[in-house]
């Protein structure tokens, strides 16, 4: 799942907005307003608020806020709005790029690519089309705002009009020459003004009486999910997750996995904010964490090199010796309401089937198989979560893809009656994947982390038994799959948030990073792939809201400049160019599912190449331009396929779990990644003959990941460069094709590498790299039902 994230948080308005505090402040302001009416001893002037109106939009230049025709705030980045301010205030004059950059980024140095990106984003926010233009690009000069602009001022804010005029307007009069009004004003004017003020005060007091709540309860939620919910950070280090909360809300548990932290488990007391480390640091990864119903113990899943299959452990909430309870637990688990049993998935890899198991926690070894699914027919997803009465389980399940083309969003939410085995689907809604799931304590429904088609992970509420779906969050960022918990009163929830960022970098072909150069500055450049063109350009992915588009990066008069190649409501990824640079092949969801497409290098003539039930990603093109290899996921299996460049019937290249293919420079070999399943079955790089499909080489040394990028061949074809995510940073490693131990190739000391590859001429190593931050947040006043 995609796990990009942004937290919505802020102070509550409390009584200062709807209570006596506001009323008293307004009364003081009103008395000051009426002083000129009573004595005319002083005239006060109100501030000017400048507005610019164009098309259906109204732009507050002082507050840097853009409104549409319905007076709704238009979603745009602060930098894009600052650029808009520069353009509309220039009265149709051409603003050079240097001028805009110096005014918008006065306190920092940025490349032209950042300006181009924000201009593109601004045009999109304004809804530009061939028939509706706001911003004109003037070649070799800059940009000009071409739409007719009318400057207005906020009502009652003209500095030439004293506050007396505002008071008169409140009273219902409109004096033609307010500066010349006599000292003794009309009694009706004063009575009218006082009446208006008292009316406002009475209305304010009424609203306060109707909405008297605590500060947190009446905080406005910017994501638009439910009134009063607030999101509060618990951690900020960026390496914490798999969170849980005790039933009484007094303790929060979370972990650090070995690759990003200490491989340990923490508990925090919410009343004192005291954090305690429960386990010694070790080479261990911790999965799902949960409290016992009585709040006295913490259960957690852990794997380490000596115990490669996840085992369930229990430890006292304030520390002590952990106890190993159950073995071979897959992904998640949940504890029964009485605290005596655990429900989880278990995979039988030989029979290729997965079961829901309920096991006793008393060490007796007693187990019950609730249901078994054949992996080629069904794919389990998410926890089997106990209902509050312990009679049923909720879980995620996907049917195997059919022969017809379909979207990857195919995971549904189901319940199963433990005694009878009866399975019921709660809703016809589908998700690309489902993470943690909890029943609400009152059994009103289930809350879960899910990714719907073309959206990142959000939190949803699904009522029971009617199946009404309600999104709880609508952030631009995403929530993690393995962290979630709800207090016994159902008002406080814990969750993990994920934040991703990446930029394009250029590194020496020898891998030395001390002279590396950052090429782009946007939020997520190259994170979903890039390719090098013969003329030196780079085509890379970048994110605009929830969409991913293709951009080109080139040198223009010694300055790097990024321009959009696609601009649509679809998500493009994994671009690769033909050797002659005439065409691009990429993966996109524009046909409903995730398939491969081809287009001209300038973005024209898009045509679909692959069809059917598979999720088709990670293409590469042979050096002679005649073949495409790619990764297709169907029936929950990853295989490498090959396809003629002009289209046709795909042919399966591998018959084992494999992904992320890469052609050797001579086109005779294809490197691909075997993802592995555990410490006992680690990932590896396999080299397969393109002609006869035989595996000719296998290399271990990769780290276990939730998402694998392809190993890339060196320009000479004698070695492979692959990624390892070790502490404290991702780096690239070099594996000679002749064998031997791999050697570290780059020496980055921070951040994660998302994608890497050599330039077309082999003179540069390109990488996209950035931060991956995972933190724990509390969702307070959480009442989805």
Secondary-structure topology with pairs:
Elements: H1 15-18, H2 20-38, E1 50-54, E2 57-60, E3 65-67, H3 78-88, E4 95-96, H4 97-104, H5 112-126, E5 135-138, E6 142-145, E7 150-153, H6 163-170, H7 187-210, E8 230-233, E9 241-245, E10 251-256, E11 264-269, E12 274-277, E13 285-291, E14 297-304, E15 307-316, E16 323-326, E17 330-335, E18 341-348, E19 353-360, E20 367-374, E21 378-386, E22 392-399, E23 411-417, E24 423-425, E25 433-439, E26 445-451, E27 458-463, E28 469-471, E29 478-486, E30 493-500, E31 503-508, E32 517-518, E33 530-532, E34 538-544, E35 547-556, E36 559-564, E37 572-577, E38 583-591, E39 593-600, E40 607-608, E41 615-621, E42 627-634, E43 637-644, E44 651-652, E45 659-663, E46 669-674, E47 684-689, E48 695-700, E49 712-713, E50 719-725, E51 730-736, E52 743-744, E53 752-758, E54 764-770, E55 772-780
Antiparallel strand pairs: 1-2, 1-7, 2-3, 4-6, 5-6, 8-55, 9-10, 10-11, 11-12, 13-14, 14-15, 15-16, 17-18, 18-19, 19-20, 21-22, 22-23, 23-24, 25-26, 26-27, 27-28, 29-30, 30-55, 31-32, 31-54, 33-34, 34-35, 35-36, 37-38, 38-39, 39-40, 41-42, 42-43, 43-44, 45-46, 46-47, 47-48, 49-50, 50-51, 51-52, ...
């Amino acid at each position: 799942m995609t796990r990009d994230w942004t937290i919505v948080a802020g102070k509550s308005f409390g009584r200062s907005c709807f209570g006596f505090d506001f009323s008293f402040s307004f009364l003081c302001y009103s008395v000051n307003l009426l002083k000129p009416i009573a004595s005319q001893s002083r005239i006060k002037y109100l501030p000017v608020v400048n507005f610019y109106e164009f098309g259906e939009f109204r732009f507050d230049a002082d507050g840097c806020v853009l409104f549409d025709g319905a007076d709704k705030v238009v979603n745009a980045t602060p930098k894009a709005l600052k650029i808009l301010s520069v353009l509309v205030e220039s009265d149709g004059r051409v603003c050079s790029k240097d001028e805009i950059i110096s005014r918008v980024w006065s306190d920092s140095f940025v490349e032209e690519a950042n300006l181009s990106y924000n201009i593109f984003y601004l045009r999109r926010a304004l809804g530009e089309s061939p028939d509706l233009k706001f911003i004109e690009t003037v070649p070799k000069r800059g940009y000009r705002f071409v739409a007719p602009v009318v400057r207005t001022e906020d009502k009652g804010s003209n500095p030439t009009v004293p506050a007396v005029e505002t008071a008169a307007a409140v009273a219902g009069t409109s004096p033609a020459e307010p500066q010349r009004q006599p000292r003794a004003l009309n009694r009706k004017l004063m009575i009218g003004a006082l009446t208006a003020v008292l009316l406002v005060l009475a209305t304010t007091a009424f609203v306060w009486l109707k909405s008297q709540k605590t500060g947190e309860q009446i905080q406005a939620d910017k994501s638009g999910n439910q009134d009063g919910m607030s999101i509060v950070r618990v951690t900020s280090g960026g390496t914490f997750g798999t969170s849980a909360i005790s039933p009484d809300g007094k303790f929060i548990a979370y972990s650090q996995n070995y690759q990003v932290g200490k491989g340990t488990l923490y508990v925090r007391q919410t009343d004192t904010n005291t954090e305690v480390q429960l386990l010694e640091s070790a080479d261990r990864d911790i999965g799902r964490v949960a409290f016992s119903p009585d709040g006295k113990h913490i259960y957690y899943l852990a794997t380490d090199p000596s115990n490669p299959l996840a085992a369930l452990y229990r430890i006292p909430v304030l520390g002590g010796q952990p106890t190993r309870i159950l073995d071979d637990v897959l992904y998640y688990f949940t504890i029964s309401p009485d605290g005596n049993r655990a429900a989880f998935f278990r995979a039988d890899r030989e029979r290729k089937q997965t079961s829901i198991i309920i096991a006793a926690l008393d060490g007796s070894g007693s187990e019950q198989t609730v249901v078994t699914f054949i992996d080629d027919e069904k794919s389990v997803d998410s926890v089997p979560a106990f209902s509050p009465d312990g009679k049923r389980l909720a879980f995620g399940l996907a049917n195997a893809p059919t022969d017809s083309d379909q979207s990857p969003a195919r995971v549904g939410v189901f319940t199963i009656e433990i005694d009878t085995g009866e399975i019921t689907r709660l809703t016809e809604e589908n998700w690309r994947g489902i993470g943690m799931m909890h029943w609400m304590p009152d059994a009103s429904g289930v809350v879960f982390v899910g990714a719907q088609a073309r959206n990142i992970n959000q939190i949803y509420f699904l009522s029971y038994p009617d199946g009404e779906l309600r999104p709880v969050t609508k952030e631009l960022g995403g929530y993690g799959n393995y962290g979630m918990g709800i207090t016994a009163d159902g008002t406080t929830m814990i969750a993990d948030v994920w934040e991703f960022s990446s930029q394009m970098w250029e590194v020496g072909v020898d891998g030395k990073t001390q002279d590396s150069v950052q090429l782009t500055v946007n939020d997520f450049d190259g994170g979903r792939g890039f390719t090098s063109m013969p003329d030196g350009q780079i085509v890379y992915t970048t994110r605009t809201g929830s969409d991913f588009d293709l951009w080109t990066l080139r040198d223009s008069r010694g300055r790097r400049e990024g321009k959009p190649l696609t601009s649509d409501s679809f998500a493009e990824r994994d671009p690769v160019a033909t050797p002659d640079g005439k065409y691009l092949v990429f993966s996109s969801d524009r046909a409903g599912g995730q398939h491969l497409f081809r287009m001209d290098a300038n973005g024209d003539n898009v045509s679909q190449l692959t069809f059917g039930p598979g999720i088709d990603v990670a293409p590469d093109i042979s050096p002679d331009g005649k073949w495409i290899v790619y990764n297709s996921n169907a029936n929950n299996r990853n295989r490498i396929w090959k396809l003629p460049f002009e289209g046709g019937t795909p042919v399966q290249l591998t018959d084992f779990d494999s992904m992320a293919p890469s052609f050797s420079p001579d086109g005779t070999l294809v490197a691909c990644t075997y993802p592995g399943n555990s410490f006992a079955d680690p990932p590896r790089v396999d080299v397969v003959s393109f002609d006869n499909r035989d595996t000719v080489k296998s290399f271990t040394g990769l780290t276990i990941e939730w998402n694998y990028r392809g190993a890339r061949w060196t320009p000479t074809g004698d070695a492979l460069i692959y990624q390892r995510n070790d502490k404290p940073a991702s780096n690239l490693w070099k594996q000679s094709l002749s064998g031997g131990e791999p050697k570290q190739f780059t020496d980055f000391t921070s951040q994660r590498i998302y994608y890497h590859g050599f330039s077309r001429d082999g003179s540069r190593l390109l990488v996209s790299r950035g931060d991956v931050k995972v933190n724990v947040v509390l969702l307070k006043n959480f009442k989805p039902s």
